[in-house]
Amino acid sequence: WILPILTLLLGITIEVLVIVWLEREISASIQQRIGPEYAGPLGLLQAIADGTKLLFKEDILPSRGDIPLFSIGPSIAVISILLSFLVIPLGYRFVLADLSIGVFLWIAISSIAPIGLLMAGYSSNNKYSFSGGLRAAAQSISYEIPQPRSLGRHSRLYQEILSYFLRKKELPECLSVTC
Asked: CA dist 39 to 42, 57, 74, 152, 160, Å?
């Protein structure tokens, strides 16, 4: 079990690094400026440099806020996002948790993240942080209405394709999310 989990975490890390790099490059080209170019070739290691810098920064806690809640809020958001990757099939034989309710569990786990955002905004006891937390949670919640509808349609199509191949008694090797 440890090798698939480590492979998944490495894949998630690489995926996040590539997405951050692409977002910075696309934003730079839209704004007609030079994108990230300082760390690594073409700025590929810029996100790692930013993360390292963030780890060594001073942890500033609000003096009038709820400190335990201030620390737990972001952790809940990040843990729920990482847990949602457990039910995503990455290949025909590479599924960490093969569940019949995988899509519904994925939606339920990813719905916990806005609670962490609200906790982080509320716990600082600042009206601007609270409104920022409300805004972030509202943006996250706004995806929760169309997301199950879209996933329901895709899972229904997947079940039809899967039943077609099972009737023919041959299952292709590439019948997963990554195909």
From this structure: 8, 19, 27, 42, 47
